[in-house]
Design brief:
Two copies of one chain form a homodimer. The first copy, chain A, is α/β, with parallel strands linked by helices and 218 residues long. Chain A contains seven helices and five strands; from the N terminus they run βαβαβαβααβαα. A five-stranded parallel sheet of chain A has the order 3-2-1-4-5, with helices on both faces. In chain A, α6 crosses α7. The model of chain A has no long low-confidence stretch (mean pLDDT 87).
Amino acid sequence: MSLVVLSGGLDSTVCMALASRDAGPLVALSFDYGQRHRVELGAAAGVASWYRAEHLVVALDLTGWGGSALTDSSIDVPPPSSSGEIPVTYVPARNLIFLSVAMGVAEARGADAVYLGVNALDYSGYPDCRPEFVAAFQAAADLALKRGVEGHPVEVRTPLVAMGKADIVRLGLDLGAPLDLTWSCYRGGDSPCGTCDSCVLRAAAFAAADTPDPALPH
Amino acid sequence: MSLVVLSGGLDSTVCMALASRDAGPLVALSFDYGQRHRVELGAAAGVASWYRAEHLVVALDLTGWGGSALTDSSIDVPPPSSSGEIPVTYVPARNLIFLSVAMGVAEARGADAVYLGVNALDYSGYPDCRPEFVAAFQAAADLALKRGVEGHPVEVRTPLVAMGKADIVRLGLDLGAPLDLTWSCYRGGDSPCGTCDSCVLRAAAFAAADTPDPALPH
C-alpha cells in the first residue's frame, strides 16, 4: 500500500498514476490549510475517486501565521518571476509539515511508501522541493518513526523530481491520468486565471507537449 | 523571540522557564491532536499566561489514523513497562509533525529558536525524543526553510535532553517555574491517575528531588 500527497494539481495527479501502476492500493492525503485556491481540494477528491483511493483531508490552518501569498489574502499573488528568489507564494515549512503528517498517516495505516510530486527542475524557487531536502527529511523520519527504528522504513518517493513539466504532462497522458480533473491555479476563482506562476507553467507544459489542456474549455 | 512547544507538562514548562530567562519574549505553541488527556491544553494555557506568552493552539486531528493509546480510546493506557520496547503510547511521527509545524510558525513569526522539552535519558522508548533525531531534523529543516537557505536558520533547542526527571524538577524550582500549573497524566480524568507511565515518572522525579508535587492536593 502507498500514500500519495495529493493537491489535485498536475504533478500530484501524475504521481497517483505512477503509484497506482507500481505500488497500489492507494491512500490519497490532501491538506486543507487555508489556501486561497481551496478549489484544488475538489479536484483532489475527483482524482482520488478516479483511482478508487481512500481520500483523507487533514485540516491544518496555516492562515493565522501569515507570511505567504497562498494563505494571506492581503498579499497579492504575483505574476511569474524569473529572479531566482524564493517567491511570495512560498509557505513556511509547507512540505516539511506535509511530509511529516504523511509519514505519520503512512505508518498508522501500514503504507510502505509516500509519494510526493515535487519537481526540482522548474521548482519556482521553493527550497522544500529540492532533492537534498527530501533526502535529509528521509534521514530524519527514519530516526523518528517506529518503522524506521525497526528496520523497515517508510520510503519517500519523488519520481518527478528530475522531470520538466512537459515530460510530466506526457507521462500523465501515457498513463491515462485524469488530467481533465486537475487544478493548478493559485488564485481561487471559478476558472484558472491564466496569469499566475502556476497557470503559466501549466500552459507552457501543455504547449511543449503539443496537446491541449483537457481542463480548459475548448 | 523564541517559540516553545508547550504541552503543559513538566518538561515543556521547564523549557518555558529556560527560554524566558535566556531567549524571550516567547510564543507558546500547543497541539490539540485528539489526545485523550486534552486537559493538558488547559495547563498549557495557564503556563503560557504565567509567562505572558502568546499562546497558539494548532488543531490537528490525529485520531482518525489510529495506532496509539494516546489518541485511540479503544487501546488501554498501560501501566509502566521497562521492556525497552516502543510503548503503545507512541504516536506515529508526533514530534516530527510538532517540530515541523513549530518551524513554520517560528519562521512566519520571526522567532530565532524553537524549544522542545524532549528528554532522552528516561524517554520511555520514544524514538523521536532522541538527540540523533533532533540533529537530523535540524538538517532537514535548514534545507526546507527560507531562513535556513538564507543562512540564518531557526535553531531547535532541546536543553533538557540529557537531564533526568529529578534534575528537571530541581531546575524548574530554581527558575521559579509554575510546576503547580502543569499536567502530566496520560489518562484524561479530573485528577492524575497516579499509575500511568507519565504519573509514575513524575512522582519518582519529585520524590528524588525531595519535594512534594505542588500540582497534587496536599
